[in-house]
Amino acid sequence: MFLKSFHKYLTFVCCTFLAFQTIGQTVYLTNPSFEDRPGPNRPPVGWRDCGGQFVGETPPDVQPSGSWEVYKPAMDGDTYLGMVVRENETYESVSQAMSGPLKKGKSYSFEIGLCTSEKYLSATRASALEGGAKYNYVTPAKLMIWGGNSLCDKAILLGESPLISNNSWQKYNFTFKPTRNVSYITLEAFYRTPVLEPYNGNLLVDNASPITEIIPKAKEPIAIKALTKKIVPGQVIRLDELYFQADNATLNKNSFKILDELYAFLAKNQSVKIEIGGHTNGVPSVEYCDKLSTERAKEVASYLTKKGINKTRVTYKGYGKRNPLASDKTMEGRKKNQRVEIKILST
User: How many angstroms separate the CA atoms of 99 and 20, rounded?
Assistant: First the structure.
């Protein structure tokens, strides 16, 4: 069973690394399901024990091994990571290099399975010297997620779970907002904070997801009729029902109504200066898109100035296919991207 699960883990790593190379927006962990041969005092393959600072303490465990009387089935695959916090102010953590960096200023989503075992029986350092009496490590602990640039480096805190008291597996979601670039991740079991008195507790960890960049949704421009009385620089106006003949900049007569609305808006707001921005879908070449979008923006500007709007108040620019609002894989997305927008430059 272990070999089967480990083969699954290896296949996952190979496939997802190729996906990372192609997509470039998702960061992957090695052995995210913590698969390995069950046993105490060693972390799962792909993860490094960070307990070197606590001399004489044992590493985390691959569970369920029966050690410490832990038999809970895994959330995913066959095994999972077991960590403890101890009453002598020592606690367990593991670390690894990620498949790529988390970048400063970006946001990422991450989820992981967490629970606690009803039994985690072990001697303490003190009891081991006095006959080996065992204690149940069951006071709730929490998961601290750190980012750094070397193994076990806790340069920045990426995320922190609540205290985990659930005995059945639950998924916990995190949003990472790194304040610097980091390439390593550390998972750490820790106490209730502030730490008034250290205690014995356990934390089980399984089924970590890839770390996925959160792409901000493009802000939709507003329509002319939806403009409020408060006009501010930077505001973008969408020109609905603006039509051109196919593959050129000749306006369709059905476009005159919306352009006349724009003219009326500018005539009413004499101090407003605007930029007319032309946009295309992403199918044609860059050169073609730049040329067509510029010509269409220029055509709209000419319509307004011919009706009497001063040329000093109207500029135009072709953005080509640089600022899409939707995917070009569908007809609907391409139509949405092929547009003319008005940006308020000054009021």
Answer: 8
d(CA 222, CA 236): 6
The residues, any chain, with a CB within 8 Å of residue 207's CB and separated by 6 or more, are: 32, 33, 75, 76, 77, 80, 112, 113, 169, 171
Phi, psi for residue 189 in degrees, rounded to 5? -80, 135
CATH superfamily placement of domain 222-346: OmpA-like domain (3.30.1330.60)
Distance CA 345, CA 235 (A): 8
Q: What is the pLDDT of residues 29-79, one digit of tens each?
A: 999 999 999 999 999 999 999 999 999 899 999 999 998 899 999 999 999
What residues does CATH 2.60.120.260 cover in the chain? 2-213
Q: Which fold has domain 2-213?
A: Jelly Rolls (2.60.120)
Longest CA–CA separation in the chain, Å = 98
- 242-264: pLDDT as tens digits: 888 888 888 888 888 888 888 98
What is the average pLDDT across 163-170? Answer: 98
Helix residue ranges per DSSP H, the chain: 2-23, 125-128, 256-268, 286-306, 331-337
- In the block, tokens 């002319």 appear at 224
Distance CA 82, CA 115 (A): 10
**Is the pLDDT reported for residue 229 higher than 70?**
no
81 burial (CB, 10 Å; 0-12 / 13-18 / 19+) is buried
DSSP letters, 217-274, are: PPPPPEEGGG--S---TT-EEE-TT--B-TTS-PBPGGGHHHHHHHHHHHHHSTT-EE
pTM of the model: 0.62
CA-to-CA dists, residue 331 to 32, 253, 255, 282, 335, angstroms: 38, 23, 21, 12, 6
Of 3-7, 47-51, 306-310, 323-327, the least confident: 3-7
Cα separation, 251 vs 248, whole angstroms: 9
Q: What is the mean pLDDT of residues 90-111?
A: 97
Which residues in the chain are classed under CATH 3.30.1330.60?
Answer: 222-346
Type of residue found at 89: E
